[in-house]
Amino acid sequence: MFVRIGYDRGTLVVRGDAHIPFGRYDERSRCFRVPAYKYRDLIDYLDLSGIAYEEKVFDLPPTPFFDAELELRDYQEEAVAKWMVDRKGVVVLPTGSGKTYVAMEIIRELNVPSLIVVPTLDLIDQWTEKLSVFGEISEFSGRSKNIGAITVTTYDSAYINAENLGNRFMLIVFDEVHHLPSESFSSIAEMSAAPYRLGLTATMEREDGLHERLPELVGGKVFELKPADIAGKHLAPYTIRRIVIPLDEKEKRLYDAKARVFKDYVKKKGLKFSSPDDFRKIVMRTGYDSSAYEALRSWDEARKIAYNSKNKLKILKNILEKHRKDKIIIFTRHNDLVYRISKLFLIPAITYRTDQRERKEVFRLFKKGIYRAIVSSQVLDEGIDVPDANVGIIMSGTGSSREYIQRLGRILRPSGKKAILYELVSAETSETRTSLRRRKRLGARQDL
Amino acid sequence: MLPKELLDIRKYRGKIFPKFLKSDEIEFAEVVLDVYRKNCGRKLRFARNELKKMENSKNYKRLRALGRIVENNTSFTLPTSLPPFQVRKFLFSRGFVTKKEERQKIINKAAEKFGCLPEEIENTIFADLEEETIIGKIDVKNAEDLLRRYNLSLLQTTIFNSLRMTFWTESEHKRIFRAVKMLGLMYEIGEGITLTGPASILKQTRKYGTSFARLIPIIVSTPSWWIRAEILDEHSKKVYRLELSSGEVLLPLAEPRIEFDSSLEEELYFRLKSSMPGVKIQREPEVIRAGDFAFIPDFKLKKGEKEVYIEIAGFWTEEYLRKKIEKVKKLSVPLIVIGREEISFVSEFFIPIERKLPFIKILKLVNSYFGKTDLTPEVDLSETLKKLRRVEAANIANLARKCGVEEDKLRRKITELLGASKMLVENWMFDRKYVEEVRERLEKGLNGNLDDLEPLLKKDGIDVLLDFLGYRIVWEGITAAKVVKKFEVDRKS
Questions:
Q1: Which chain B residues touch A if contact means CB-CB below 8 Å?
Q2: Which residues pair with residue B393 across a beta bridge?
């Protein structure tokens, strides 16, 4: 028995006289077709069955010797060692604990063509800067399309080009790997034949449960640390201060009225909120059920009142005055509030609409200490190094514990100062429950 | 294309129906376009707010989607002459502030620095945000144009979630197949062309939906088409069928365009067209299944029941041909191949290409196949005239166009050869016997047998003939009519 294995647009094509598992026979092109990510399984199967094969899957960029010495912390070393056992799997480390170095050490040891997939262009820049100890780093993104021995790309670009990137690398690293199992992004992993796979994240779990696909796509969890495990030693010691703030009278009245519309609707329809799916059911109804539409609109308005209350701004003012000497990041749920705070307090704003040039400029001036604070909606939640910040103020947010942990992580890079995270919550509103939900998974630490 | 939360569809019994705007729903497009036009020169947020006030559970998807399409086709300008980025940098470098007086001081400083009023500084801080910019030129012709663009976006957005798509078009095959190849899709030819991607057999995937959607504008720009697609519902994971064909929905009007692969093709097309009237010439007429691959000939010539394909094989390599030739030879319709001498083995109908298009040779071959030896590009009217002998009435202009001959020439020929039995009245040719018949029946009609007249009134060219015979139809209501002598009408009035 003899087969030839090739790569065709995100799949492995096997021709020959032997039967091939893991895939299907494809009438369209008269061959066996196997998902690319089954490459390792397929080779193992052929070896074990004693089937001779010719393998022409990879088209690899030339790879120099990655000549660099890295000094790792003990837990980083341990993570690398655990991953090396099967050269597959997810490493869970808190934000600010140096996940990048774990990946770099693995890249260095394997010394094979490597693709690093990250969520944003900012993160491409950040990774590129760190990886440059290995020599020239290529970027494959909307702004540049180069492929080299070490290439950094975004999830979006990797998804669009999954069929062409799938056979160009031996190692694929997914930064913030919790993004990967979404229906579309998962094809980046599925269409890649790379036998070595590393996932990095601070929290693997997704609310939609799709993280269950990670073991199949990159491998299971091989190492995990929680913020509390290393706080004080490798991360700044921190305090969380939750401040419950009443709405003013006018807001309260409006809030109650709006919230009532929603509650009545839910009651009338006998809905229970045990999963995000229930909420989606209401959204689905808005197209034909005008009371569902009204209910949802009221709910959204009520939430905005709670999230953006006037009293929160007063408290914010006090906190800002108290931390004149510190570096502060203010987090909000909605962009409107970002711009309001920015205008009111003259604090630079960063949202997904801020262009790359301005974003860089803001970070630069923040690092230099010319800007003392930054206000942002979601973009700062993830990955980007914001140096030296030691005060975080959550004006509003989602119920996601990932977002919460990431926001906390933003102020935990060791700076010699004690970190403090304020969480502002409107009293007697649904926000108290949102706040409860987001803090659920933080580990041992409680409010101080 | 639209964000998925604006996808307005209905699902019923396993089928999916995008809620296309129909011509009697143009009001939606009118209202939205009006809002933006009315707010031209003002900040975008005014238009958006106004639109938002009109939303209700029934229309919000449409209104938002229509608004989005207008915005995508509008140019915006900044509401200030100051550079917002520089102003921000100036202000924020002096922040942050927590007191009003503190803030005002910095604003005033900025006003001084940029040479303007403090209010203008306030206005500039986020002047470059989308909703703060000024609505400029709106590049949407009218409400109908907007409606058509909306329908196309809605169709494409529906197709986004497609697992596989089958379609058929009357033309543009080469262009479509070029695109299919570029998009990395796979096709199968059966009833229509079925598109999938390499991974489709391994997993129900919507990965190729975007690529299918990109083909939609080309497909729907052809005069006649149909599409069937399997659409995966994200949440229920059920598969719904989408079925749509030309004429069922208002879509952007195709810009008339004929695109040729080579100047040779173009030359051949126009020369065939001018010298072979009476022969139907189709460009890239159909996709022929030849074994595993699709073959699209450049032209199909059709005369009566007889058909022949023509292919200019400019880029065919010998290797390619050896692989495909057996299959091409099995085609049920003969293929004339025009190409380099070396590839003469491909077809019994082979014409070697010279320095220029061997047009006369092509014409000879085509004509001999269609059973005619006349080599001059002169139009042969004998067939037409023969047929005309049995015709009661015929419109000369239409007939001339159909035969590809000048009207005058056709008139001359008719008078010359059929003058005894036919007569020409204005733009029409009538059989003399037929004219007499009509005259007789009209006389009867005048005597009151109106029922007899009805079939007569449906005949071709009857208006012209009545006028010629000195009668006029007087309509009484919608269905009833009577024929009166002209002078009677004149007398009455």
A1: 8, 56-58, 60-61, 85, 88-89, 91-98, 103, 106, 122, 125-126, 129-130, 184, 186, 188, 196-199, 201-203, 205-207, 234-235
A2: B430
